[in-house]
Design brief:
The chain is mainly α. It contains 4 helices and 2 strands, in the order E-H-H-H-H-E.
Length: about 120
Amino acid sequence: MRDISKMDYFQNLMSVLIDNTRRLFRLHGKEYELMPEAYAINAEMTKTGNWIDHIPGGFKTIVHTEPQQFVREAMEGVLPGYRQQAIKLINHFRNTSKAQGLDAKIVDEHFDKEYRYEDQPQ
């Protein structure tokens, strides 16, 4: 189970969601259609999680193996919004799975087993 409130990297989340959702659909003799909104949410998540823009010098700044305090602060500063976008992406896949005809109980069991986060649908 992935606890979103403790994670700080989501760049492969969309790929994982696509693969797992398609696999879940195939188990039930259906096909999942990826919606364009998923790409928009993923792009916004990437933009929101970009901490480089929040440090002096941006890409020209040398970040040490043990990041400097101002770098750590920039990284930590983007995490709440980054995590919210990850939750939005997970919920998008949850909701579109139901909208595309997969039984709500099956969908909820799958996503509840895979992900944990605040304000999770009950």
